[in-house]
Amino acid sequence: MIDPSTGTMEVADILVKEGRIAGVAPLITREGIPIIEATGLWVVPGLIDIHVHLRDPGYEYKETIETGLAAAAKGGFTQVCCMANTLPVNDTGAITFYMVEKARRVEGPLLHPVGAITKGQKGENLAEIGDMVDQGAVAVSDDGNPVMNSEVMRRALEYASHFDIPVVDHCEDKNLSDGGSIHEGEVSTRMGIKGIPSASEEVMVARDICLARQTGTRVHLQHLSSRGSVELVKWAKDLGIPVTCEVTPHHLILTHHAVESYDTSTKVNPPLRTEEDREALVEALAQGIIDCVASDHAPHSLKEKDVEYDLAAFGISGVETALAIVLKLVQEGRLTPMRAMEAMSTIPARIMGLEGGNLKVGQPAHITIIDPDKRWRLEPDSMVSKGKNTPFAGWDLKGKAVVTMVEGRVVWKEETLGEGGNDEG
Ligand code: DOR
Question: What's the number of domains the chain is made of?
């Protein structure tokens, strides 16, 4: 059992009763109750992904709330936060209500919508933030788009402070990135593909830090990709400015050299950058300068990806591989198991103000069981998500969620689990 909320790592039984953790002890009497045998496995607080695109409503051909939640469960996630770039955009209480209701009927991982900051994500007028919060939105973000107008962003921060929610930002200066497809550097020059400079992210990271300082409102920065962004966040945190940030698994493991294949599944926004950037991101995650990992699960259909690189949609379908990629860093000795689980559960819960992220008695039984030694090959055809757009196709991975439990209900279970054992629960 690994519980980053208390720093404990021990061998124990966990008793689950009426959807809650009812006991944690070295040996709990097992008679008469269903048992999940987890000897040799890691039992951790249910993983939480605070950045997914479920495409529902409007783009159901890419993903639906049902398929997205099923994919998240298979990836070990017990709670996810979905972005607002749907059709219509989630900028009203009615759309937030639709998402919450649909997810409730699925009975999979819990879904927490992130409402838009601005109406239609156009960056001009504030969305109905209060109504969305009333219907269950846990934060606001125009993700997919930045809020380019700093005055609008300032008003959003001031307004959001009334609801005690973070304002979550996709940091990109569109004037600098416009028309680019990959990181601006040696690879973009050689390939003749227009680049996106690191500065397009960094100037907005710097702006958001200044606005967080000005307003005192919590800002969470999404999918950081560059060394410069890490340096700015470190500076802000040293000054006590209320800023948190995330990194994706793909930015932790791939660089712009992956793009040399012309495989459009490597096209993502922000783009994969240099080895120096990747190294800075891994180190910052290990040190806690980067708070957490989030997949930026961005499923697309074949018709949007099976085209020339320039024309392809940005995004990686990532919720089913996030855990294995993070575990790769654990296997390489770059992250401890405790820090990895903290970054995938305890801290995400804190950032979004969610229950969970710990294994304390009395808390909801959101639990993930991980087999850290399980070897598997990623075959896109066997992915549950409708989006098969992954740069990890054919990769041999080690480590997998074998049970995902939400409020005591098993929402995902690896078929081979408990073979020859007494698992009934
Ligand atoms: O690559 C990306 N895809 N980055 C984003 O910010 C948006 C996302 C999407 O919605 O496809």
Answer: 1
Amino acid at 131: D
Per-residue pLDDT reduced to its tens digit, 78-94:
999 999 999 999 999 99
Name the residue among 72, 78, 66, 70 with its Cα closest to residue 19.
78
Q: Which residue has the tokens 């499923």?
A: 299
In a domain, 220, yes or no: yes
CA of 266 to the centre of ligand 1 (A): 12
In a domain, 164, yes or no: yes
12 in a domain, yes or no?
Answer: no
Point out the residues of the chain with pLDDT beneath 50: 419-425
296 classed as catalytic:
yes
Mutate to test the pocket of ligand 1, among 49, 50, 51, 53 (most ligand atoms within 8 A of CB): 53
Q: What number of residues does the chain have?
A: 425
Query: Residue 96 belongs to a domain with what CATH number?
Result: 3.20.20.140
DSSP string, 50-109: EEE---TTT-TTT--HHHHHHHHHHTTEEEEEE-S-SSS-S-SHHHHHHHHHHHHHHTSS
Which domain, by its residues, includes 88? 45-357
Q: Which residues line ligand 1 (CB under 6 A)?
A: 53, 85, 143-144, 170, 268-269, 296, 298, 314-315
pLDDT value of residue 349: 98
Q: Return the DSSP state at 402.
A: E
For residue range 182-216, list pLDDT tens digits in order. 999 999 999 999 999 999 999 999 999 999 999 99
C-alpha of residue 346 to centroid of ligand 1, in Å: 25
CA distances from 189 to 192, 337, 355 (A): 5, 39, 47
Structural domain contains residue 372: no
Single out the catalytic residue among 91, 143, 296, 371.
296
The predicted pLDDT at position 31 comes to: 86
pTM: 0.97
Using CA atoms, how far apart are residues 260 and 124, in angstroms rounded to an integer? 38
Alpha-carbon distances of 328 from 194, 226, 331, rounded to whole Å: 31, 21, 5
**In contact, 248 and 318? CB cutoff 8 Å:** yes
Supply the pLDDT for residue 415: 84
Mutate to test the pocket of ligand 1, among 55, 267, 314 (most ligand atoms within 8 A of CB): 314
